[in-house]
Amino acid sequence: MLAPVNVSLESLNLMTLAPMLIPIIGALLILVIDLFKSNLDKTLYVGISLLFLFIDFIAIMDASGVFVQDGTVMGVFDVMLIDGLAILSQFIIVGVSMLFIPLALTHKRFHEFSYPEFFALFLFMISGFQFMVASDNLILIFVGLETASLALYTLIAMHNRDKSFEAAVKYFTMGALAAGFYSFGAMVFYALTGSVEINQIAAVLEANGYADIAYVLVGVAFMLASFAFKLSIVPFHTWTPDVYEGSSAAMAGYMSIVPKIAAFIVAMRIFEFLVHSGIVWLEVVLYVFVVVTMTAANMWALVQSDVKRMLAYSSISHAGFVMAAILIGTTQSNSALFMYWILFSFTNLGSFTMLWISRQKHLPAYQRTDHSFDKFAGMIKTSPMAAIIMALFMLSLAGIPPFALFWGKLYMISSAVTSGYTMLALIMALNSAIAGYYYVKLIVYMFMKEPVVGNDGHVYVTNATLALKSIIGFAAVGTIFAFLAVNPLLEFVTAFVYNSGY
C-alpha cells in the first residue's frame, strides 16, 4: 500500500494561480447575480468586470515583483509557470481587456451587451488566455486554449447578425481543426520524450541528439499548423477576414490583439528551442511563413473596398511581421515582439473603436457594406475630429515616424539586421512601404473626397459616450506620445525577457 503524500499549501505556491482565478470568480459572480436578479442595467456588469480585471492586474504586478526577486517561479505541482513572458503577456491581455469592456457603455443598444452572459464569457475567456501563457505544460495550454476559444466563438455569435453566426461557425470549424492538430503534435512529443512539459521535452530531445528527427518534424509540422491557424498565418488565414467582418468592430479589434499575443507566447516556448537546436527545415518554413504572410496579406489589403476587411488583412500582415521574432529567436527580437504588440494594441484597438462608434443598424442605399470606404468620404467636413484621429491611427499602422508603431517596426527590423537576417529586414521594410498605400487610401477618402449624399452614413463622434471618447483619446495619446516612453518601455520589456532566458 502506497503511503499518503502530504502536500502543503506553501509548496503548491498558489500565488501562481491567483491571476487566473480572479476573472473566473468575477464571471461566476455575474452569473449568480443574474440568477437572483435579472434584467439589471449593463453598467453594473461593466463595473464588476472592470473591478475584477483591475484586481487581476494588481495580482499580476504582485507576481512580477516575486519574479524580479526570485526569478522563474513554478507552482501547483509545477504546471503553472511565472516568468517574464507570462507576466508581460498577461499585462497586455488584461490591459487591453480593461480598455475593451467600457465599449459596452454606448448609447446604441447593441444586442450582445444586453446579456450578463456576455461579460461572464468574456472573463472566462481572459482566464483561458492567462492559463495559456502562464504554463509550459502542453495539456494545460490546451485547456486554456479551448476555454478561451469556446467563449470567443459564443461572443462572436452573440452579435446576432447573419454574418455573425456564419463567422462563429467558421471560427469554430477552423478552431476545432487547429485543436486537432495541436493534440496530435502534443501526442507525438509525449511519445518521443515521455513528458508534456516543454522544458523537459527540450532537454530529452537534446540529450538524445534528436535521434528521432523524422518524428520530431511530424510533431513540429502539426504544432506549426495549429498555431498558424490561431495567428492567421498564410495559408491558414482564410477564416480571418470573414470572422472579422461578421464580428462587431470592437470584438474584431480585440481579436486582432489578445488571442494572438497568447498564441505568440506558446509558439515562442515551443519553436524557439527547436530553431536553436539547428533544425534547418523549421527555420526555412518559418522564414517562408513570415515573408509570404506579410506580402500576400498586404496585396489582399490593397484591393479591399471595406475598411474592416482591410484592417483584417492588415492584422494578418502585422502577425507575419511579428512572427519574425520567433524565427530570429534572440532576446532582442523577443523584446521587440512585446514592444511591437504593446504599441500595436493602442493603435489597432483605437482604429477598430472608430469603426465601432460608426456602426449602423440599417445601411443607406449608396453604401454596400457597413464600413465601406465611401462611408468615410469627406469626413473632414462632416466630422473633422473623427477624421483627424482616424488618420492618426492609419499613419501609426503604416509605421510613419514619430507615431507609435514606427518604433515597434524599427526595433523589429533592427533585431533582424543584428542577427544576420539582412534580406528579411529588407523585405519587412518593403512591406511596410506597401502597407502605407492602403492606409493612406483611407486618409485620401476622408480628406480629399466629397461626402457621399446622405450624411447618416458618416461617423459622428459627438454621439459617442464619455467612455468611448476616453478610450479613443487614450489610444490617440498613446499613439502620438509613444516616442517619450520608447526607451523605458524597451528596458522594462528586455529585463523580463532576458531574465526568463529567452
Following the backbone from N to C, one meets helices and strands in this order, namely HHHEEHHHHHHHHHHHHHHHHHH
Instruction: Return the structural class.
Output: mainly alpha
Q: How many alpha or pi helices?
A: 21
Largest sheet: 2 strands, antiparallel
Low-confidence stretches: 455-462
Instruction: Give the end-to-end Cα distance, rounded to a whole number of Å.
Output: 44 Å
Strand content: under 5%
Q: Name the average pLDDT.
A: 85
What would you call the shape? globular
Q: How many whole angstroms does the radius of gyration measure?
A: 22 Å
Strand line-up in the sheet with most strands: 1-2
| Count of beta strands | 2
Helix proportion: over 70%
Description:
The chain has 502 residues and is mainly α. Helix content is 72%, strand content 1%. The longest helix is centred in the middle third of the chain and has 32 residues, at 162-193.
Give the secondary structure arrangement, pairings included.
Blueprint: H1 9-12, H2 18-36, H3 42-70, E1 73-75, E2 80-82, H4 84-100, H5 116-133, H6 138-157, H7 162-193, H8 198-207, H9 213-230, H10 240-246, H11 249-255, H12 258-276, H13 280-302, H14 307-328, H15 331-356, H16 379-382, H17 384-397, H18 404-418, H19 422-448, H20 466-480, H21 486-499
Helix pairs in contact: 2-3, 2-5, 3-4, 3-5, 4-5, 4-12, 4-15, 4-21, 5-6, 5-12, 6-7, 7-8, 7-9, 7-10, 9-12, 10-14, 11-15, 12-14, 13-14, 13-19, 14-15, 14-18, 14-19, 15-17, 15-18, 15-20, 15-21, 17-19, 17-20, 18-19
